[in-house]
Amino acid sequence: MLDYAQAKAAIEKDKAQRIQEHQVRVANRQRMRTMAGPAGLATPQPLNLIAQGDSWFDYPLPFPGASDVIAHLRNVPKAPEILSLAHHGEAAESMLGVKKLHELLRELRDPKNGHFDAILFSGGGNDLAGDQFRLWVRDAASAGSDPAQGLVQERVDGILAVVRAAYEDLAQARDRIDAAIPIFVHSYDFALPDGKGVCGAGPWLQPGLLDRGWEALADGQVIVRELLSQFSTLLDELQTRHVNFIHVKTQGTLGAGDWANELHPTPGGFARITQHFVEALRAWPSFQGRI
Asked: Which of 115, 183, 211, 266 places its Cα 20 to 30 Å from the Cα of 147?
């Protein structure tokens, strides 16, 4: 088993390879357009996207293969070119700390990557519904066993303020490079707190609910739905405050059978989530006919 330093080195090597392969594809595509002459230069080109975020953008299961949003986007008709900096091995890191932000900005500025048409970002889920989920949940007794009162609102407000700051930093950093580049974000979906983990990780939701006295699955679903609904409202507000910031509405997409575990959809579930991204990208005025 790799130690921490070796694991980090392996992640960086994997990312460096992704960047190199992306740059080769961009160069080859530009070469082919030039060789095709005026007709080639006039032909609409596939979108060039950069992605950063959590395991919804880089989920390595089932193995072999991948079933995340980025993997499905790469398989749609007129598939976009995507440089994905999201890595499942970094799932425990902050959603947009200094390292991740600088990494994103570095690749946005590198001309070898080509001009990026859009930024895709997935973040906030680990902050809200990860191991610390218990902190946002009120004791059932103090809530009168009413799941509608199941959140400690002042704590939820605090973590949402942190998430808001990270998204605002992302938007402001984008503005310094090119405010015309749209940022597409999403609000996950209403996770099922049924105690399912994966490969020794998790569960993330049910333990906190049980610890607070919420034993019924239905009660847990009410609490999780309210927390994620507030996150969706936050993204709506950010969409209003920042230019070219698009909240892809993904909540309400998945059914009970679409969840592989408490935090991740099945391959079919990810495909359904991805369709919302495809529709949002196709609706963007300058992307018509390119995806």
From this structure: 266
**Residue of 184, 39, 183, 49 lying closest to 116 (CA atoms):** 49
Q: Could you read off the pLDDT tens digit of each residue along the chain, which spans 291 residues? A: 667 788 888 889 999 999 999 999 999 999 988 888 887 667 789 999 999 999 999 998 887 776 899 999 999 999 999 999 998 766 545 566 778 888 999 999 999 999 999 999 999 998 898 779 999 999 999 999 999 999 999 999 999 999 999 999 999 999 999 999 999 999 999 999 999 999 888 899 999 999 999 999 999 999 999 999 999 999 999 999 999 999 999 999 999 999 999 999 999 999 999 999 999 999 999 999 999
Give the residue numbers spanning the domain of 266. 48-283
pTM: 0.95
Is residue 289 assigned to a domain? no
Please tell me the distance from the alpha carbon of residue 280 to that of residue 284, in angstroms, as a whole number. Answer: 7
- How far apart CA 115 and CA 47 sit, in angstroms, is 10
Which residues, listed in sequence order, are joined to residue 151 by a DSSP beta bridge? Answer: 137
Do 99 and 162 lie in one domain? The reply is: yes
17: which 2 tokens? 């390879």
How many angstroms separate the CA atoms of 248 and 229, rounded?
14
Do 15 and 127 lie in one domain? The reply is: no
The CA-CA-CA angle for residues 254, 67, 133, to 5°, reads 55
Asked if 33 and 63 sit in the same domain, the reply is no
- Report the domain count for the chain: 2
Phi, psi of 43 (to 5 degrees): -75, 130
**Contact predicate 186/254, CB 8 Å:** no
Residue 127 falls inside a structural domain: yes
CATH code where residue 188 lies: 3.40.50.1110
Strand partners, 122: 53
- The token pair at 57 is 């953008």
